[in-house]
Amino acid sequence: MIRVEFNRTDAGKIQSFSMSGHAEFDDSGKDLVCAGASAVAFGAVNSLFENAQIEPIIDLGQDGGYLAVELPLLEDEMTMLKVEIILETLRTSLETIEKDYGQYIKISYN
To answer: What pTM, to 2 d.p., does this model score?
Structure first.
């Protein structure tokens, strides 16, 4: 199972997220749940670099079954808004996957 955890600030903004595990929906290379979750997560990380122009702190596991992303301190309001949109879009996308494939992906919030 893929486990996703979102951590929010006291103000309710996503400060970090992590993904761990494997969906095991299908054989490696055919696992649509894993591919979908990975695509939206890495798309969000790439968007943080490209569109928000920030460098998040990234921890990528060696076996491909772990990703943790933490935001640096942000002071510019426009950057904060871009980051919020990107990360809330990630959350929504992963929740959509969880809705249809909940036995393979679980999201929690702290």
So the answer is: 0.93
